[in-house]
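User: ok so my PI wants both of these folded by tonight, can you help

Assistant: No problem, let's get them done. Here's the first:
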Amino acid sequence: MVLINLRHLTPHSLLRHSPLLPKQLPSLKTRCFSAAMTTAAMSTSTKKVLVPIANGSEPMEAVITIDVLRRSGADVTVASVEKQLRVDACHAVKIVADALISDCSNTVFDLITLPGGMPGATNLKDCGILESMVKKQAADGRPYAAVCASPAVALGSWGLLKGLKATCYPAFMEQLAPACATTVESRVQQDGKVVTSRGPGTTMEFAVTLVEQLYGKEKAEEVLGPLVMRPNHGDEYTITEFNPMQWTFDNCPQILVPIADGSEEMEAVMIIDILRRAKANVVVASVGDKLEILASRKVKLVADMLLDEAAKLSFDLIVLPGGLGGAQAFANSEKLVNMLKKQRESNRPYGAICASPALVLEPNGLLKGKKATAFPAMCDKLSAQSEVDNRVVVDGNLITSRGPGTSMEFALAIVEKFFGRNKALELAKVMLFCRM
């Protein structure tokens, strides 16, 4: 089990590298702006955002939205609609909110945005306090949004999509018509103050759209760069592979995902979520002396076990999320480095994303003779740089990738190596990462 404790984040700056071209931003959504869109929405002042969560919420959708909005400087409050702060999200991820929804009922938010997941969307819908808050948000002309099942199950049932263009997860599209919404199949749809989106694979685009809605296009483009998002949203993903070899396992792939203070929560949660969707046994291990770690955007993750305990086990794959602080902690862990070296020596798969290839694998000789990539700002630390522009690189038993925006491709490539491309594409389509 993974326990996530989400706290308030104060605005902070980011490294700004490899920004996408400005012309790519409009492709993130289909716009239908109303006259109500004012210059006030483009203000650079700190915006207050509410992300309600419930038992059965989709953790990728929640964490990606929180992470991206906090990157923009937004003050994000995560509120549980349950009787306790902790909720049981999908795929064995546990989330502990900042507050109960009742604590937030009198707060004015610049945006309220709902993650999806089932039965999470239903549990959000059934929360009377949240319903009143979102209805008041709409009546006051302030933005509200939802992704996956929540546009139909929550917003639609509350009558808040009447006369608007909206989208949602394909299985719930028929529920939009009774809500008097005009259904569209856009990956992200904005109609005036309301933004809707389709699923886990569209959530990063959705979150960047919310940043633009709150702060304007320039801020959205600033946030886009470090995400390393792909410009061809919905296309079938590709990987670059050298020295192909079969990745094997006995009954079920045993996969270790270490985490540490400063790990990138989007990358960690996407890897964990997607690999668990594929029915791999994912063990999350803390490299510190406590199960709980403070991730890069102030999301607290609690591991399944300490690394000392995990070191007694055998894994078919060890895969490192990125995040500058997390990668440095991995590099400082002699136990983890030794586990990675033994993994390589036994010709078993290992991998890393973002800062970790450059800060963990390279200094310890784990990239020697291998093709690899890393976060754009870290690629100059790699001894071999011929393949660094590729989003996912597999070389025999090694897999590396670039950053948050490549995490789904990275995780799907792991699924492909263990279970085959058909299984990976099936998951990609279910998540709406690739077109169905």
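One down. Here's the second:
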Amino acid sequence: MEMNREKLCTSKADVSSDSAYHCSTCHDDEEWSHTSRGRAKSRSLSASPALGSTKEFRRTRSLHGPCPVTTFGPKACMLQNPKTIMHIQDPASQRLTWNKPPKSVLVIKKIRDASLLQPFKELCVYLTENNMIVYVEKKVLEDPAIANDDNFGPVKKKFCTFREDYDDISNQIDFIICLGGDGTLLYASSLFQGSVPPVMAFHLGSLGFLTPFNFENFQSQVTQVIEGNAALVLRSRLKVKVVKEHREKMTVQNGIEENGVVSTNIEKEVGKQIMQYQVLNEVVVDRGPSSYLSNVDVFLDGHLITTVQGDGVIVSTPTGSTAYAAAAGASMIHPNVPAIMITPICPHSLSFRPIVVPAGVELKIMLSPDARNTAWVSFDGRKRQEICHGDSISITTSCYPLPSICFRDPVSDWFESLAECLHWNVRKKQNNFAVEEEEF
């Protein structure tokens, strides 16, 4: 208890000692303090100026505005609760650093893609020559083109192998390199249900919205990451808990015919089954193979907010806003924005628009009591399973984001991906007037 109090006092002292930023919106001058520019720093959203000094505001550039004052008029103020203090990392100072030099790297390669064999071999040779411990999935090495390559044999013997869902390597990997498209990054995220090592993704797939690096100069780029010279974007993930009523089928005799006993299978509830997932893109609840509309209830922090009647609903992160949610009509949101998106899929209502809710709220999705059919749920397109009456899906923001290494910085990388991959706002421009029009 004394240790916790000491930490709390220390954190409060750090907050109070931070140099205050002067917001250019509220002041004529732009007086900035650059003493802490080079290091990552947390800024408290709840930290407010002392009463009577409301001319100074803490600048929180991740929200692109000053921290709101929590004193209202001469006597009212926000109730201070240490449990609700939220620290926002300044995106401009999100840089990769190592407490110790990295020694192990996990190489994720897209399966059944012959075009990736040569880049995979070149990367692994380079890593082993630099005395890195290379982890590779066992099924990657089972590819005949790799297994039968005698020249690659000495390098392959140095690999550490693992199998998905069998081997836990979460505490053995310093950083990750993905070779492929966006699916390789999603797969890498699924391997780590807790803290995720930094991820460096090379664009060797079809779309490449989440993979900013080109492979031509991979040696210098990997060296920069090993030296800690790289920017980071923290891609928030969703923590999902699925609670299913465990039903056991029993055979009950309910009649006799000429040929013998006729039996009927019935389901009996014998407990609950709980499954948890960390999701980078989205959780999709849909009607599955049924011809009936999906009918699910959506709760937010315990309150019923709506019933989704249509083909289903998408709950996505800002990273997933440019995936299935964008195709369903949602806005595209930068990954630094703390939010959760709720997007209906072909809703049976013209007024049902996608909404954005604050990060950290708890969503709960259940079948409506009068639903005609069951629903199906998938997590980043995987682990698809049926949801029946009495089952529930709880979704909130995970405290374990995916640290994605940037090619330049979070803003430049994101807008370049919008332009190159999605052709955002690509159109023919109007011609300018060659001759000035006469004024009438």
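Residues 5-64, 251-269 have pLDDT under 50 and may be disordered. The radius of gyration is 27 Å. Good luck tonight!
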